[in-house]
């Protein structure tokens, strides 16, 4: 007794099996996370180290070279290259595909820490991180405003609001942009220092030594012990002003307030953040490595609503200039709509070709059973709902329906031969079961090696291939069990004579199909009569299809950018520009961009720019993020708009070097698809050669 005969004679077993599969698939679907793309970790890790105030050459000699020396002995390393800029060192390490990225990264942390004592004292703690595209860019950005002075707002954010947001499940690092910190300034009077024969160093040492807090031992007696702690932290500005600096010869005390002015002030701003021209404080929120992006964003939105109620007294307000979950959900909904539309269209075709609504209902039952059960495979293999996995579900629908149609059409043929339901089902399935299985095996052989391959892009394409394999296996099982079970009980020949309008429509459809079939037969007969011409045309088409990408008519890229409707403009001014000059000119550029009809809203960061490896800060640089209106409402694509905007900014505003790029699906700017690296021991020769090559490359069309 084969599996199809078993499903007809023992339907309870099939019902129980698929009930379990559907239940597991539904529960798996409810537990899946939403992502834009599969979590892709390349065999690369980075070591980022800040060295405030150091020149690029000093960063290279004191930090980058020493980090390279420390990690060069690690096993599995393919290449190491470093980027030394003003105040920051970035060392990028690529390891072999066979090496364990987690093991190598942990060993690199140990090596870097062992070399820490070789760095200058001003160097901050190095940060070692794996290169994961899903974690390099913030999942959501908030702007914060309140009826508080800037310094007090920063204190509220740092000590209360950010910890409250960080408690949300899946939230990782939260960074602040455009903050203004509190600062106690001691403005020393040089004349009074000279009068009392003191130096600034003496005043500095007095202030530092007075603001201390350390353990001072313990007192033990027969009954108990008491811990002692020396606490002399300043709690009020008057504590600093009344600090004793020196004792005069006459026995009087010299206080800090006698020689200096103590002011409760704010630090000089190093960056400014604006949303649609309104200054605020920005919060960039990153998710944890395996966190659900959509859930994190929803949790943040829920938390900020509670915070606004909690801090209503200071009129705390949040806005969301950037929300990564919107693109993810739009993509998921779009693929879901395509999936439903495909099922509906296939059902309509089944009714037209087989003339039986019952058969269409059987297909409508079989296909969703396969699809829902496939979600169990998602859960088992740890996949998320993303563009690749949902695209696989859409692509495989044709195969799912093919299996059901082949079985169903052959059963229907036996019904037309006069057999009863059971006989038609038995003989119909028996004749095509081997064909259905062999067809499925061919597809499995194609996609399974892709799913289990070991390459750089395997984490992206493996979910696509494996889901197709799982869906094909389940569709074959459904076609050989569920379809025979239903046809043996509910299938019957359809009499179209009851509805004259339906019979007329079906006859018209049949005439169209017959006409198209006749055209194909004529084309086939012509091909048999003109074999050499047919072979020649096929050869030309084959060679042309190969040449299309080879000669550049069809481009190639790792991941299509698409039109997400967002872009970034990075502005670079002369090095001598102050933050005030930067802010003034950047604000003019913001107003210029806002007047564009294609622009929905903008938010700008003055004094810093974002990047894939780190955030760069400088009074001569700024970044403007632009959100365009929906692409259906504009006549220009986002990449063309950004390129035109770049040219307009450089032509309209002097002393500005603009770099505009569209945002990719990953969240970063698509700005440097090609990079060329030149190496030389002689710096002067290297710069001269790079300048000459830059001029040569600029002549290439498209650059």
Outline the fold blueprint.
Layout: H1 3-9, H2 11-31, E1 41-50, H3 56-71, E2 77-85, E3 88-95, H4 101-114, E4 127-132, E5 140-145, H5 150-166, E6 171-177, E7 182-188, H6 190-195, H7 200-210, E8 213-220, E9 225-231, H8 237-241, E10 244-247, E11 253-255, H9 256-259, E12 260-266, E13 272-275, E14 278-287, H10 293-310, E15 317-323, H11 324-354, H12 357-381, H13 387-395, H14 397-416, H15 421-451, H16 458-490, H17 500-529, H18 531-550, E16 566-572, H19 579-594, E17 599-609, E18 616-628, H20 638-652, E19 657-662, H21 683-698
List keywords for this structure.
4-stranded antiparallel beta sheet, 9-stranded antiparallel beta sheet, Multidrug efflux transporter AcrB TolC docking domain, DN and DC subdomains, Alpha-Beta Plaits, alpha+beta, elongated, 703 residues, 52% helix
Provide structural commentary.
With 703 residues, the chain is an alpha+beta fold. Among the domains are: 72 residues, Multidrug efflux transporter AcrB pore domain (Alpha-Beta Plaits, 2-Layer Sandwich), CATH 3.30.70.1430; 66 residues, Multidrug efflux transporter AcrB TolC docking domain, DN and DC subdomains, CATH 3.30.2090; 47 residues, no CATH class; 107 residues, 2-Layer Sandwich (Alpha-Beta Plaits), CATH 3.30.70; 30 residues, no CATH class. It is built from 21 helices and 19 strands. Strands 5, 6, 13, 14, 15, 16, 17, 18 and 19 form a nine-stranded antiparallel beta sheet that branches. A four-stranded antiparallel beta sheet has the order 2-3-1-4, covered by helices on one side. A two-stranded antiparallel ribbon has the order 7-12. Helix 2 packs across helix 12. The two termini are 68 Å apart.
């Amino acid at each position: 007794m084969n599996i199809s005969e078993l499903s007809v004679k023992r339907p309870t077993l099939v019902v129980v099996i698929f009930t379990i599969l559907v239940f597991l698939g539904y529960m798996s679907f409810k537990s899946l996370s939403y992502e834009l793309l599969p979590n892709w970790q390349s065999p690369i890790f980075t070591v980022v180290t800040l060295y405030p105030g150091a020149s690029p050459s000093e960063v290279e000699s004191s930090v980058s070279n020493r980090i390279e020396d420390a990690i060069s002995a690690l096993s599995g390393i393919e290449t190491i290259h470093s980027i030394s800029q003003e105040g920051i060192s970035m060392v990028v390490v690529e390891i072999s595909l066979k090496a364990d990225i987690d093991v190598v990264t942990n060993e690199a942390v140990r090596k870097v820490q062992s070399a820490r004592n070789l760095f200058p004292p001003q160097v901050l703690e190095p940060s070692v991180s794996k290169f994961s595209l899903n974690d390099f860019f913030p999942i959501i950005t908030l702007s914060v405003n309140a009826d508080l002075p800037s310094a007090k707002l920063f204190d509220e954010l740092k000590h209360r609001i950010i910890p409250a947001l960080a408690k949300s499940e899946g939230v990782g690092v939260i960074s602040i942009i455009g903050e203004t910190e509190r600062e106690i300034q001691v403005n020393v009077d040089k004349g009074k220092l000279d009068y009392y024969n003191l130096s600034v160093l003496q005043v500095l040492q007095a202030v530092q030594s007075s603001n201390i807090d350390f353990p001072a031992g313990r007192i033990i007696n027969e009954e108990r012990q008491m811990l002692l702690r020396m606490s002399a932290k300043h709690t009020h500005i008057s504590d600093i002003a009344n600090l004793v600096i020196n004792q005069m010869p006459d026995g009087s005390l010299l206080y800090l307030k006698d020689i200096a002015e103590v002011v409760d002030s704010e630090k000089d701003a190093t960056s400014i953040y604006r949303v649609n021209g309104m200054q605020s404080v920005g919060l960039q929120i990153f998710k944890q490595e395996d966190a659900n992006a959509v859930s994190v964003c929803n949790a943040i939105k829920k938390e900020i609503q509670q915070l606004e109620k909690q801090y209503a007294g200071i009129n705390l307000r949040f806005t969301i200039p950037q929300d990564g979950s919107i693109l993810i959900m739009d993509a998921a909904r779009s693929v879901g709509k395509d999936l439903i539309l495909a099922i509906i269209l296939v059902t309509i075709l089944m009714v037209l070709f087989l003339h039986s609504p019952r058969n269409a209902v059987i297909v409508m039952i079989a296909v969703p059973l396969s699809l829902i059960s496939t979600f169990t495979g998602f859960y088992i293999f740890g996949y998320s709902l993303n563009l690749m996995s949902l695209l696989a579900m859409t692509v495989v629908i044709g195969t799912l329906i093919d299996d059901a149609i082949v079985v169903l059409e052959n059963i229907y043929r036996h019904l037309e031969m006069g057999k009863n339901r059971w006989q038609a089902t038995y003989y119909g399935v028996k004749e095509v079961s081997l064909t259905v299985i062999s067809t499925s095996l061919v597809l499995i052989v194609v996609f399974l090696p892709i799913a289990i391959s070991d390459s750089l892009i395997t984490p992206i394409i493996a979910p696509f291939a494996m889901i197709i394999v799982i869906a094909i296996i389940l569709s074959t099982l459904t076609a050989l069990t569920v379809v025979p079970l239903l046809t043996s009980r509910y299938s019957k020949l359809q009499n179209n004579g009851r509805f004259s309008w339906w019979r007329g429509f079906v006859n018209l459809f049949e005439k169209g199909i017959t006409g198209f079939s006749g055209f194909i037969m004529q084309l086939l007969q012509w091909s048999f009569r003109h074999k050499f011409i047919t072979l020649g045309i096929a050869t030309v088409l084959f060679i042309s299809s190969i040449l299309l990408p080879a000669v550049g008519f069809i481009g190639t890229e790792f991941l299509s950018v698409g039109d997400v409707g967002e872009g970034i403009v990075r502005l670079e001014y002369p090095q001598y520009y102050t933050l005030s000059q930067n802010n003034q000119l950047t604000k003019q550029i913001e107003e210029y961009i806002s007047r564009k009809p294609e622009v929905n809203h903008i938010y700008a960061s003055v004094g810093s720019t974002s990047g894939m490896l780190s955030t760069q800060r400088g009074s001569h640089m700024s970044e403007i993020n632009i959100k365009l209106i929906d692409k259906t409402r504009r006549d220009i694509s986002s990449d063309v708009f950004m390129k035109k905007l770049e040219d307009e900014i450089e032509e309209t505003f002097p002393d500005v070097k603009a770099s505009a790029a569209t945002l990719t699906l990953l969240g970063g700017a698509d700005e440097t698809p090609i990079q060329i690296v030149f190496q030389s021991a002689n710096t002067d020769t290297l710069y001269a050669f790079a300048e000459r090559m830059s001029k040569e490359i600029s002549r290439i069309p498209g650059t």
